[in-house]
Amino acid sequence: MQIHTRTTGALETGDNAQAFSAVCLEAAGEKGDVAQNVLFERVSARLKAQVGPDVYASWFGRLKLHSVSKSVVRLTVPTTFLKSWINNRYLDMITGLFQTEDAEILKVEILVRTATRHSAKPGADEQAVVSDQAAVAPIRRSVAQPAGHAVAQAVSAAAAARPATGGMPLFGSPLDSRFTFDTYVEGSSNRVSLAAAKTIAEAGSGAVRFNPLFVHSTVGLGKTHLLQAIANAAVQNPRNLRVVYLTAEYFMWRFATAIRDNDALTLKDSLRNIDLLIIDDMQFLQGKMIQHEFCHLLNMLLDSAKQVVVAADRAPWELESLDPRVRSRLQGGVAIEVEAPDYEMRLEILKRRLDAARQDDPSLEIPAELLSHVARNVTASGRELEGAFNQLIFRRSFEPNLTVERVDELLAHLVGSGEPRRVRIEDIQRIVARHYNVSRQELVSNRRTRVIVKPRQIAMYLSKTLTPRSFPEIGRRFGGRDHTTVLHAVRKIEELISGDTKLSHEIELLKRLINE
């Protein structure tokens, strides 16, 4: 009887100790939250003193603290317009103010709070966010903990919590839950890339498709939306895929921190156990050692039949700053270009943006003729189209009777004001390749057949006559050819034009297509 009593007492003592530990952990978390709030209040006071109360009330009155990690502060605002405005005009100032208060802070990010507004189960989402932050919290608080070990713990914690949280990437750059396949506007310019992306997101572990998939386009055409849509869909896949979404900048920061802490092996081991790696903005991957490590990671994942998706602002063979081995691996997959949206697609983007804005303000109305006019005249990219829409929304608040003429005045900087369009070598290659029914990759390859050589020489000639690029730079854009090869091509086409009326007309047609 005494033994039983002692055992029960010991158990009660253990329970009390566990309860006491839980209370201590909760108190430590509350203390950390208090410290973060104090930091935000101090920075807010400094910002208000610096910009003045009127400007502060206009642009920063709805700014809220989202989270503070060891080196990154995340703030939230209610609209995309506010995010864009603060990022473009005040982000450096805000970052400097945070660094004044805490020298360990390296970066400030602005997020949009409305990202989870349309979720079907907001309570579950909030619980998922809290659970995820709780899993990562011990890592954030351990200041002396190496970066690679921290990532390993994040991977383990997120993998264990995945069924309860309803789908989260293991770690990496934050995802915007608005960027899904449902909100991605499909058109003739992106239909192929969208189909490939959906196939990858719906595939199971080990079912590799188009590996690696390389999506490229100029800025503002939806690459990031597409990649985040893949990640958002893949983490909801019932096969429980292990997904990591990273920007090249985040990848560099993670590896640089792990190397500094002499813990790179732990980070690399963490990345070996994933099913899908998605990397955005590959053109920003810099540094010989970082590229060397990425090459090993890429080889390991591809050789293990793990899916890799990459995006950049140009084709893989044009990423001259990348290690040749990385370029070669990226060229071994499927490269798909996303082109500028056509009129129907631009109009659909504007209509969807208007529908989303009406959820905040049901009384908002923009005449159909204004939307159509903007869609016809702002043609460069989806991002510029969004900027034009934000201008309309902003102006309608105090100019309710906007006319087409007034819209032209407001959007003159986006329309181009009649200035000639800047021509890029990749545009020339794409249009020449399409005209002569060859691929861009064949134009920059080493093939010397007649059906390839002539279009290649014409593209080189047009690159020299329509762009300010030098002979050596043009040669590099055409598969690393010598400048004398480009010079020969230019002279050859000039000679042929003088005696071949048909070719001369073809060149003029290509020039018109390129300049449209």
TrEMBL record:
Where it mainly occurs, coarsely classed, is cytoplasm
Organism superkingdom: Bacteria
Q: Domain AAA+ ATPase spans what residues?
A: 209-337
Q: Where does ATP bind?
A: 220, 222-224
**UniProt keyword list:** ATP-binding, Cytoplasm, DNA replication, DNA-binding, Lipid-binding, Nucleotide-binding
Q: Name one GO biological process term.
A: regulation of DNA replication
Q: Which PROSITE patterns match?
A: DNAA (PS01008)
Q: Where is this region: Domain I, interacts with DnaA modulators?
A: 1-135
Q: Name one GO cellular component term.
A: plasma membrane
Q: Domain IV, binds dsDNA: where is this region?
A: 397-516
Which residues belong to the signal peptide in this entry?
Answer: none
Purpose: Plays an essential role in the initiation and regulation of chromosomal replication. ATP-DnaA binds to the origin of replication (oriC) to initiate formation of the DNA replication initiation complex once per cell cycle. Binds the DnaA box (a 9 base pair repeat at the origin) and separates the double-stranded (ds)DNA. Forms a right-handed helical filament on oriC DNA; dsDNA binds to the exterior of the filament while single-stranded (ss)DNA is stabiized in the filament's interior.
Domain topic, free-text comment: Domain I is involved in oligomerization and binding regulators, domain II is flexibile and of varying length in different bacteria, domain III forms the AAA+ region, while domain IV binds dsDNA.
Oligomeric state and interaction partners are given as:
Oligomerizes as a right-handed, spiral filament on DNA at oriC.
What is the recorded name of this protein?
Answer: Chromosomal replication initiator protein DnaA
| Encoding gene per record | dnaA
